[in-house]
Amino acid sequence: MANIIEIQDLSVPELAVFARLTEGQLRCRREPEKGVFIAESLKVIRLALQAGCKPQAFLMERKRVEGAARDIIDQCEDIPVYTGDREVLAGLTGYALTRGVLCAMTRPVLPAVESIMPTAKRVAVLEGITDSTNVGAIFRSAAALQVDAVCIMPTCCDPLCRRAIRVSMGTVFQVPWTHIRSDVSVLHDWGFKTAAMALREDAISIEDKELVAEERLALVWGTEGTGLTAATIEACDYVVKIPMAPQVDSLNVAAASAVAFWQLRVKKDTL
């Protein structure tokens, strides 16, 4: 039976997860098993549920309860559904719920890197990318363009922060991902060649035939402003750039990732 709860008091502790906890508090770094993330929109929530993520509570406009969210509520019948008018929810969260539904979910246990790499051919490695919009967009491109996995370095934004999940359109639940240490040379243990995406005079083009032909390739992406660290670039097998028109020096990291994922994807006839 659905557990529908009409919001009467915005200050009750049960609603803190939707309004008063920072992203760091949601992640619960000291006790990761207690961490939470927020999924926004019915499409994203459905993808998270299909991936096995466990819901803790819903927050949604009243009209969604008997409308578009009915199937999700029925699927999660024991989970509390906090509801009210659009204005009430905006007063709680501080912003309008443009998609009408939020779901607090338990953070999943990430796969060990050893379980992802043996079958992967193309992976993306993210170092120091702090813009959650870019992280979400990279995941969306990775899902669309046959990237097998994403590796997150310690300096990178959390892929399960609310904005990254939203921009990814839920693909963070479709593309396998996990954390790796700061030294990209660990990827050599699984037979990967590493390609630092960097604007250097000695960089080769993403059209380079030897690069395209690599059986296993990890594309390493750096922060939006300064790019990859010198140590990471030196640890990679290739330094690679996307050829640009003379008047333009670079692309946004999310746009550049889409171009590179497409150009360097494993062709079906080479599998």
TrEMBL record:
Highest taxon above the source species: Bacteria
Domain tRNA/rRNA methyltransferase SpoU type: 123-261
Listed GO MF terms: RNA binding; RNA methyltransferase activity
Any matching Pfam family: SpoU_methylase
Gene3D superfamilies per the UniProt record, alphabetical: 3.30.1330.30, 3.40.1280.10
Biological process (GO), any one: RNA processing
Keyword tags: Methyltransferase, Transferase
Name of the protein in its database record: rRNA methyltransferase
Organism the protein comes from: Megasphaera cerevisiae DSM 20462
